[in-house]
Amino acid sequence: xxxxxxxxxxxxxYEDLGRLMGLMTGAEKHGPAATSTLDALWVLYDxxxxxxxxxxxxxGRDRFLLSKGHGPMAYYAVLAAKGFFGExxxxxxxxxxxxxxxxxxRLLVPGAEIGSGSLGHGLPLxxxxxxxxxxxxxxxxxxxxxxxxxELDEGSNxxxxxxxxxxxxDRLHAIVVDNASATHGWPGGIASRFEAAGWSAATVDGRxxxxxxxxxxxxxxxxxxxVVARVEPKK
Length: 235
Prior knowledge:
Radius of gyration: 17 Å
Order of helices and strands: HHHHEHHEHEHEHE
Shape: globular
Helix content: 25-40%
Mean pLDDT: 90
Distance between the termini: 43 Å
CATH architecture: 3-Layer(aba) Sandwich
Structural class: alpha/beta
Number of strands: 5
Strand content: 5-15%
CATH superfamily: Thiamin diphosphate (ThDP)-binding fold, Pyr/PP domains
Number of domains: 1
Largest sheet: 5 strands, parallel
Protein backbone atom coordinates (compact mmCIF):
# COMPACT_ATOMS: atom_id res chain seq x y z
CA UNK A 1 0.00 0.00 0.00
CA UNK A 2 2.84 2.41 0.78
CA UNK A 3 4.44 1.83 -2.60
CA UNK A 4 1.16 2.35 -4.45
CA UNK A 5 0.51 5.66 -2.67
CA UNK A 6 4.02 6.84 -3.52
CA UNK A 7 3.51 6.00 -7.19
CA UNK A 8 0.29 7.97 -7.35
CA UNK A 9 1.96 11.09 -5.96
CA UNK A 10 5.20 10.98 -7.91
CA UNK A 11 5.45 14.20 -9.96
CA UNK A 12 5.52 13.71 -13.70
CA UNK A 13 6.38 16.05 -16.53
CA TYR A 14 5.56 16.20 -20.21
CA GLU A 15 8.68 14.17 -20.96
CA ASP A 16 7.18 11.23 -19.05
CA LEU A 17 4.04 10.95 -21.20
CA GLY A 18 5.67 8.93 -23.96
CA ARG A 19 6.77 6.31 -21.47
CA LEU A 20 3.35 6.23 -19.84
CA MET A 21 1.65 5.77 -23.21
CA GLY A 22 4.14 3.03 -24.03
CA LEU A 23 2.90 1.03 -21.04
CA MET A 24 -0.47 0.60 -22.76
CA THR A 25 -0.19 -2.37 -25.06
CA GLY A 26 -2.77 -4.44 -26.94
CA ALA A 27 -4.82 -4.13 -30.09
CA GLU A 28 -7.26 -1.42 -31.18
CA LYS A 29 -5.23 1.39 -29.64
CA HIS A 30 -6.17 4.04 -32.22
CA GLY A 31 -2.65 5.40 -31.88
CA PRO A 32 -2.98 8.44 -34.20
CA ALA A 33 -6.22 9.47 -32.50
CA ALA A 34 -4.42 9.40 -29.16
CA THR A 35 -1.13 11.03 -30.06
CA SER A 36 -2.86 13.88 -31.91
CA THR A 37 -4.41 15.02 -28.62
CA LEU A 38 -1.38 14.63 -26.34
CA ASP A 39 -0.07 18.20 -26.32
CA ALA A 40 -3.46 19.88 -26.01
CA LEU A 41 -4.39 17.59 -23.13
CA TRP A 42 -1.12 18.17 -21.31
CA VAL A 43 -1.27 21.96 -21.53
CA LEU A 44 -4.88 21.93 -20.42
CA TYR A 45 -4.36 19.71 -17.38
CA ASP A 46 -0.96 21.11 -16.45
CA UNK A 47 -1.65 24.81 -16.75
CA UNK A 48 -5.33 25.64 -17.20
CA UNK A 49 -7.88 23.15 -15.88
CA UNK A 50 -8.88 23.67 -12.25
CA UNK A 51 -9.37 20.10 -11.14
CA UNK A 52 -7.19 17.67 -9.18
CA UNK A 53 -7.73 14.19 -7.75
CA UNK A 54 -8.61 15.88 -4.46
CA UNK A 55 -11.18 18.27 -5.99
CA UNK A 56 -12.69 15.93 -8.61
CA UNK A 57 -15.95 15.80 -6.67
CA UNK A 58 -16.25 19.50 -5.86
CA UNK A 59 -19.14 21.44 -7.37
CA GLY A 60 -16.82 24.33 -8.21
CA ARG A 61 -14.35 22.27 -10.25
CA ASP A 62 -13.76 22.79 -13.93
CA ARG A 63 -15.20 20.03 -16.11
CA PHE A 64 -13.34 18.31 -18.96
CA LEU A 65 -15.25 16.10 -21.39
CA LEU A 66 -13.31 13.90 -23.81
CA SER A 67 -15.57 13.61 -26.84
CA LYS A 68 -12.76 12.04 -28.89
CA GLY A 69 -13.02 8.96 -26.72
CA HIS A 70 -12.06 6.36 -29.31
CA GLY A 71 -8.38 7.22 -28.77
CA PRO A 72 -8.04 7.56 -24.99
CA MET A 73 -4.39 6.55 -24.44
CA ALA A 74 -3.09 10.11 -24.19
CA TYR A 75 -5.97 10.96 -21.85
CA TYR A 76 -5.13 8.03 -19.60
CA ALA A 77 -1.45 8.95 -19.61
CA VAL A 78 -2.21 12.54 -18.58
CA LEU A 79 -4.64 11.43 -15.86
CA ALA A 80 -1.98 9.08 -14.49
CA ALA A 81 0.64 11.81 -14.64
CA LYS A 82 -1.64 14.09 -12.66
CA GLY A 83 -2.29 11.49 -9.97
CA PHE A 84 -5.87 10.44 -10.71
CA PHE A 85 -4.64 6.83 -10.66
CA GLY A 86 -1.30 5.07 -10.49
CA GLU A 87 0.76 4.16 -13.54
CA UNK A 88 0.58 0.51 -12.53
CA UNK A 89 -2.97 0.50 -13.98
CA UNK A 90 -1.80 1.45 -17.48
CA UNK A 91 -0.37 -1.91 -18.69
CA UNK A 92 -3.82 -3.50 -18.36
CA UNK A 93 -5.31 -1.07 -20.89
CA UNK A 94 -8.16 -2.66 -22.82
CA UNK A 95 -8.08 -5.97 -20.95
CA UNK A 96 -11.19 -7.59 -19.53
CA UNK A 97 -10.58 -6.62 -15.90
CA UNK A 98 -9.02 -3.19 -16.49
CA UNK A 99 -10.89 0.05 -15.73
CA UNK A 100 -9.16 1.57 -18.75
CA UNK A 101 -11.26 0.54 -21.71
CA UNK A 102 -10.85 1.35 -25.37
CA UNK A 103 -13.49 4.00 -24.68
CA UNK A 104 -13.43 5.79 -21.29
CA UNK A 105 -16.14 4.87 -18.79
CA ARG A 106 -16.88 7.58 -16.23
CA LEU A 107 -17.89 4.95 -13.67
CA LEU A 108 -14.52 3.23 -13.92
CA VAL A 109 -11.94 5.90 -14.77
CA PRO A 110 -11.10 8.35 -11.95
CA GLY A 111 -11.39 11.90 -13.27
CA ALA A 112 -13.52 11.07 -16.31
CA GLU A 113 -16.68 13.16 -16.50
CA ILE A 114 -18.46 11.19 -19.25
CA GLY A 115 -18.40 7.85 -21.02
CA SER A 116 -17.39 8.62 -24.58
CA GLY A 117 -16.33 7.26 -27.92
CA SER A 118 -19.53 7.57 -29.96
CA LEU A 119 -18.81 10.50 -32.25
CA GLY A 120 -20.92 13.61 -31.87
CA HIS A 121 -21.92 13.33 -28.21
CA GLY A 122 -19.31 15.38 -26.38
CA LEU A 123 -20.18 18.90 -27.52
CA PRO A 124 -23.92 18.52 -26.86
CA LEU A 125 -23.12 17.14 -23.41
CA UNK A 126 -20.75 20.06 -22.77
CA UNK A 127 -23.47 22.54 -23.78
CA UNK A 128 -25.88 20.83 -21.38
CA UNK A 129 -23.28 20.89 -18.62
CA UNK A 130 -22.65 24.61 -19.11
CA UNK A 131 -26.40 25.29 -19.06
CA UNK A 132 -26.81 23.20 -15.90
CA UNK A 133 -24.04 25.02 -14.08
CA UNK A 134 -25.53 28.37 -15.10
CA UNK A 135 -28.96 27.29 -13.84
CA UNK A 136 -27.40 26.44 -10.46
CA UNK A 137 -25.75 29.84 -10.26
CA UNK A 138 -22.26 28.35 -10.58
CA UNK A 139 -20.42 30.90 -12.69
CA UNK A 140 -16.82 29.97 -11.87
CA UNK A 141 -16.50 26.43 -13.26
CA UNK A 142 -15.31 26.27 -16.85
CA UNK A 143 -16.49 23.48 -19.14
CA UNK A 144 -14.00 22.08 -21.65
CA UNK A 145 -14.62 19.52 -24.38
CA UNK A 146 -12.10 18.02 -26.80
CA UNK A 147 -13.28 16.87 -30.21
CA UNK A 148 -11.68 15.57 -33.37
CA UNK A 149 -12.22 17.38 -36.66
CA UNK A 150 -14.03 14.37 -38.14
CA GLU A 151 -16.61 14.54 -35.35
CA LEU A 152 -17.82 17.82 -36.73
CA ASP A 153 -19.41 15.87 -39.58
CA GLU A 154 -22.05 14.78 -37.05
CA GLY A 155 -25.27 16.78 -37.08
CA SER A 156 -25.55 16.82 -33.30
CA ASN A 157 -22.41 18.95 -33.14
CA UNK A 158 -23.78 21.45 -35.65
CA UNK A 159 -26.90 21.86 -33.50
CA UNK A 160 -24.87 22.26 -30.30
CA UNK A 161 -22.47 24.88 -31.65
CA UNK A 162 -25.34 26.75 -33.30
CA UNK A 163 -27.12 26.94 -29.94
CA UNK A 164 -24.16 27.78 -27.71
CA UNK A 165 -23.21 31.07 -29.39
CA UNK A 166 -26.59 32.82 -29.18
CA UNK A 167 -27.02 31.39 -25.66
CA UNK A 168 -23.87 33.27 -24.59
CA UNK A 169 -22.30 30.24 -22.89
CA ASP A 170 -19.06 32.02 -22.05
CA ARG A 171 -17.91 29.28 -19.65
CA LEU A 172 -17.93 26.77 -22.50
CA HIS A 173 -14.66 25.96 -24.27
CA ALA A 174 -14.07 23.53 -27.13
CA ILE A 175 -10.80 22.16 -28.44
CA VAL A 176 -10.93 20.72 -31.95
CA VAL A 177 -7.86 18.66 -32.80
CA ASP A 178 -7.52 18.97 -36.56
CA ASN A 179 -5.56 16.14 -38.17
CA ALA A 180 -7.26 16.59 -41.56
CA SER A 181 -9.43 13.50 -41.18
CA ALA A 182 -12.86 15.08 -41.70
CA THR A 183 -14.89 13.90 -44.68
CA HIS A 184 -16.47 17.30 -45.12
CA GLY A 185 -15.13 20.75 -44.40
CA TRP A 186 -15.95 24.45 -44.24
CA PRO A 187 -14.91 27.33 -46.47
CA GLY A 188 -12.35 29.30 -44.50
CA GLY A 189 -11.60 26.48 -42.08
CA ILE A 190 -13.09 25.03 -38.93
CA ALA A 191 -12.81 28.21 -36.87
CA SER A 192 -14.97 30.10 -39.36
CA ARG A 193 -17.85 27.68 -38.76
CA PHE A 194 -17.81 28.45 -35.05
CA GLU A 195 -17.36 32.17 -35.57
CA ALA A 196 -20.42 32.23 -37.82
CA ALA A 197 -22.39 30.83 -34.89
CA GLY A 198 -21.19 33.53 -32.50
CA TRP A 199 -18.16 31.83 -30.94
CA SER A 200 -14.76 33.30 -30.20
CA ALA A 201 -12.18 31.24 -32.11
CA ALA A 202 -8.44 30.73 -32.45
CA THR A 203 -6.41 28.41 -34.68
CA VAL A 204 -2.95 27.35 -33.47
CA ASP A 205 -0.20 24.79 -33.93
CA GLY A 206 -1.40 21.85 -31.87
CA ARG A 207 2.18 20.94 -30.86
CA UNK A 208 3.17 24.44 -29.65
CA UNK A 209 2.54 24.55 -25.90
CA UNK A 210 2.86 28.31 -25.55
CA UNK A 211 0.49 28.91 -28.47
CA UNK A 212 -1.99 26.45 -26.99
CA UNK A 213 -1.80 28.09 -23.57
CA UNK A 214 -2.31 31.58 -25.01
CA UNK A 215 -5.32 30.38 -27.02
CA UNK A 216 -6.81 28.49 -24.07
CA UNK A 217 -6.60 31.53 -21.81
CA UNK A 218 -7.64 34.22 -24.31
CA UNK A 219 -10.53 36.37 -23.04
CA UNK A 220 -13.90 35.85 -24.74
CA UNK A 221 -16.53 37.81 -22.79
CA UNK A 222 -20.10 36.80 -23.50
CA UNK A 223 -19.20 34.07 -25.98
CA UNK A 224 -18.12 30.43 -25.96
CA UNK A 225 -14.58 29.83 -27.17
CA UNK A 226 -13.06 27.26 -29.53
CA VAL A 227 -9.40 26.48 -30.12
CA VAL A 228 -8.58 24.62 -33.32
CA ALA A 229 -5.32 22.75 -32.72
CA ARG A 230 -3.76 21.75 -36.01
CA VAL A 231 -1.51 18.69 -35.99
CA GLU A 232 0.09 16.51 -38.66
CA PRO A 233 -2.44 14.85 -41.01
CA LYS A 234 -3.66 11.39 -40.07
CA LYS A 235 -2.05 8.67 -42.20
